Amino acid sequence: MSALRLLIVVTLLGLAGCGSDGPVAARVDQALASGQPTLVEFGANSCTQCRKMSAVMAALAPRFAGRADLIQVDVGREYDLTRRFKVIVIPTLVFFDTAKREVGRHHGFLEETKVAQILNDLGTR
Q1: Which of 19, 32, 105, 113 is the most buried (most CB within 10 A)?
Q2: In terms of Cα–Cα distance, which of 83, 36, 88, 85 is closest to 64?
Q3: Residues 53-63: pLDDT tens digits?
């Protein structure tokens, strides 16, 4: 088998494990159906701004427990989910209202107070 052909096969096998039918995609779908505001953050551990955003998400999770769904998506592992939401820059924060409509999108780091304000504006009070 040629090196190029082997590379294509290995790449395809790697992508096969990154489908959007996995537990993270199911969690996103469940959150959107919950009737609560939802924040989905797309990032990667190799990205400095994403790691900062991850800390913000961790700080906000207990504060909004039961009032909003906060979900983090690793773009390297959830390829199909990343494509489904048309994410091209990380970190990307996608905000959904209680009717499952995307109401906002932010590219790059966003401070904790600003994220909290957006979630509060979506009706999590």
Answers
A1: 32
A2: 36
A3: 999 999 999 99
